[in-house]
Predict the 3D structure of the following.
Amino acid sequence: MMTARQLLNEKGHDLWTIHPNNSILEAMKVMIERDVGSLLVMSDARPMGIITERECARSVVSKENSLMDTMVWAIMAPPVPSIGPNESIEKCMTLMTERRVRYLPVLKDGSPIGILSIGDLVKCIIGYQHATIIQLESYIHGQVAN
């Protein structure tokens, strides 16, 4: 099965970040502009955590916080699990399921090279299963699959 690096090569290495001292409003603007659901929180070129649309919405609604007055560091998820580029998609899915996270940064030598979402992994697994079904159907019908 595919590795995290291979999946990133297919989907792209775009990685959007924000500093922990930025406001939630600034974070939400970046997520909207880039059409992403999460930002990696970085300080001094180090990943500090992650902030998601869901955390922004919950923080603002549940605590009636101001978007401009609440900083990213106050609501970001602390250091999230991460994986190396050579980890399998199955390992990524297991880690996301066990840790109940929707986003997984991919780090190479401690530096982020991309981020995978649960949707990325599901799409990959469905594609792999579809290819397997086609091969099995070809085998059953006596055809040689290329």
User: Anything to note?
Assistant: The mean pLDDT is 87. DSSP finds six helices and five strands in the chain.
